């Protein structure tokens, strides 16, 4: 009999985390802090501030509200907003321990998410369904789990995994609730195992398990066993759904060359149209999921920042949006999700800015922190303090206090 998948994954998670991966985790920590800072004055940020006195728990509602959270392409999910609250949730832990916890959380969440198929993604929100595994692994790392404990805890967390995409049809906070649910569920599953609970190690592949319930053709758990999956995660430089980023990227390159002229023809992969074909958005959320608005923003001389997706901007750019047509390009779909691409008026992007093939580093993410901090009402000095704490510091308590202050 083969070893259960969660037992195999647990051995990977329990490996020592190298210094290089912990340095990589610092970039993702700063990226998450930037997203939280930018959303602190949004409805989601206020909701987070109301649910708890703890900074990490408040931040569960803010980390993905701006649609600028990090993303893994083939798993089609956003690890940062789930993993970081769990990794930051033990007050007695050091920053080094939290960085290790985050790397392990990213590993578990991405590995499970990459095994989901197109049927799953059509109905289920993978950041939620796979997120419980990431939060569980991160908190288990803080507790000091052995492989058997990781397997037990993830089995229990996965047994109540969920999160349906139907919330995309309404202007609601359900997506943020999914993050909160994933963090709390994964964390609680780990805590219960710490006190003696056991769980089903074959939860993924079992006859009544998660794959049987939510997929038609599940794949293998992702990952090179000699490496760590956090290195495959992309950063998002634009304040829109990641499916719109390739079109934004191509339009920006055309604009820089002085060749971005109406009418605008966007060709991209099928999922981008499924999620982002919205010619007439009316709300901020709809604008962030609109290829038409994304290209109109760039054509208007903007850089796809949070202020470019407000309801005022949506109204102002109606005429430009009307000049944008969108269509699927089968060759681009064939490369997806390994490559997120688009073509705008003949300018083609295969890999998007922020992907591992076109990486951005600490300077770019520090500037993202300043930009989103300003959008969220923070001073540049406060944004630079966050950058210093995340990239160079070792004071976990200072980050805790900062989050509580931001979202209080």
Cα distance spanning the termini: 52 Å
CATH architecture designation of the largest domain: Orthogonal Bundle
Net shape = globular
Structural class: mainly alpha
User: Low-confidence parts, pLDDT < 50 over ≥5 residues?
Assistant: none
CATH homology-level superfamily of the largest domain: 2-methylcitrate dehydratase PrpD
| Amount of helix | 40-55%
Can you give keywords for this protein?
single chain; 408 residues; mainly alpha; 2-methylcitrate dehydratase PrpD; 60s Ribosomal Protein L30, Chain: A; 2 domains; four-stranded mixed β-sheet; 22 helices; globular
Please give a structural write-up.
With 408 residues, this protein is mostly helical. Helices cover 54% and strands 4% of the residues. It has 22 helices and 4 strands. It has a 4-stranded mixed sheet with strand order 2-1-3-4.
Short summary:
The protein has 408 residues and is mainly α.
Write the layout of secondary structure elements.
Blueprint: H1 5-13, H2 19-39, H3 43-51, H4 55-58, H5 80-87, H6 95-115, H7 118-123, H8 126-129, H9 131-143, H10 147-158, H11 174-194, H12 210-214, H13 245-256, E1 264-268, H14 270-276, H15 284-288, H16 291-299, H17 311-316, H18 318-321, E2 324-328, H19 330-335, E3 342-344, E4 347-349, H20 362-375, H21 380-391, H22 396-406
Parallel strand pairs: 1-2
Antiparallel strand pairs: 1-3, 3-4
Helix pairs in contact: 1-6, 1-10, 2-6, 2-20, 2-21, 5-6, 5-9, 5-11, 6-9, 9-10, 9-11, 10-11, 13-16, 20-21
